[in-house]
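Need tokens for this chain, all 561 residues.
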Amino acid sequence: MNSALDIPEQLATPFAFRATGPTLFGSELPRPNNTEQNQPPSHLVEARRLVDRHPDSAIAWARLAQSAQASADIEQSLDAAGKALAMGISQLSRPAIHAAVTVLASYGRTETVFQALQSHGANSIPNDLRLWMAIETKDETCIEQIVSEAQSPTALVTRGWVAITRGRYQDAIRDLRAAQATGATGPGLLMNLGYAHAAVGNLEKAIKITRQAAALAPNDRGISLNLAGFQRALGHHEAAVDEIRRVAGARPDIELALVLADFLLEAGEAGKAHDVLQRVRTSREWAHADRTRRSELEANLAFLRWSTRRQDRTATLAVVLRALASCEHSSLAIGNLLMNLVRDPPEAPVLAAEIARLATKHPEDSLLSLRFHHAVVMRDAHAAAAYACAWAESDIFNSTAASLAIHLLTDAEGRAPEAAELGLKAIRRAPADPLLLNNTAYALCLAGRPAEAKRLIASTKTAAGQRVALRATEALADLMLGNCEQGQAGYREAQRLAREQGRPDLEALAALNMALAMRRAPGCKDEMELPTIPEQWKESPTFWMVSHRVRRELDVDSGER
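Here are the structure tokens for all 561 residues:
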């Protein structure tokens, strides 16, 4: 049976699989420190004097751009950066161009760089420098023009990275391997090659390559987080936690403490997860953390108190909403906690308002999970299915997104063949996720592929939280194969397991699915009456979909059964 429409408990962490853009050159000016004094800082005064003495120097204007930015003088910083870029191109000053583009891109003023790239011919700016400028400003047309035919190591590495950003993972593997053949190496190349292999489901190879990257850059947390994530996807939770502990050291900062706590929570160690965050909360790291990190820590501590039943949902929701306001909605991770805490239609306006505020700070594709959840809260099955599919496509390593999309495509939309294919692709990236495996097997059954479903379930390591669902799905497969007695026995066993877990809701769901399955099964006598659906399921945040499915399959109002 499809699992109830529920969101697995996950902390608000900054963890995400990453690919890294190529480092094309390292000519950078030293950056001045920021200041909180009321008077112009000495470095800004000196930068102005340098420009006065050398008004035709690209380096002088670049230093002024950086100093003004560090002093929050946006107007002067942008003006100086524009002059530094124009002079830097004329004087072919790499450090000046690098500083100017970095400042302009940080303010989102990429049009200045676009104009510079368009007004200067290809011969005016060396290809590697031109490529870096295009990457910094996301000028995809220029990137394509530069790397499409070039065969230099830099071009091949960049082409591989561009292929990753566009979801062309086999192309990325080809280009990155070609770059290695020309002598290119380094942790960034290996990190991206590992990412591309994981994206096509070659997790063992991804782990091997990412370990090589970690050996070259043992303190690179992006590489270590990828490695831990790939290990977790294969079900190697201890190895994943060990890798996070290695890079975190004895005193993890807030970012790594959040990631470690999330891994521990997934492994069923909620108490240990809380201890990790509480230690950071009382450490020196807390005193020096910025507002966003502090807010994330406070929100996660509240979430763990709720998940361990030491605080009710309403109080936890209030803490999370305060944390979002405190960081001015800069943390999307905090926003995602709302997927566990906002449940009922009367709370939908609160969720919609928070999504609107987050939308001012974050790209639309990063909000798909929250828009999906808003549709769920509104009990809009069709919209929820559309958002879940978009979320799964956008976040390819997120097995929760894929599991929910499969669930909704199958039960809400009646598109089991499409759901089954989505699941089989997702399983290659997360073969140890029991929820994903169960939902895919369920979709295979309804797509007329019960034998494949049986094989998939047989390969699954049974997780306590999915034992009932997996047993019921296996029973469905037996019924669809014509093994009526075996299938009915399997459903009864699923009901027994639910009783042993003290889950009358799951027991009722297994009974309902058995009755529906008997109506579908070839050669099985349909002598079962459809059980009465509990009235409260219509408003339940996790079981309302059952009512929707019964109406769709039997063309009746579920409340009449």
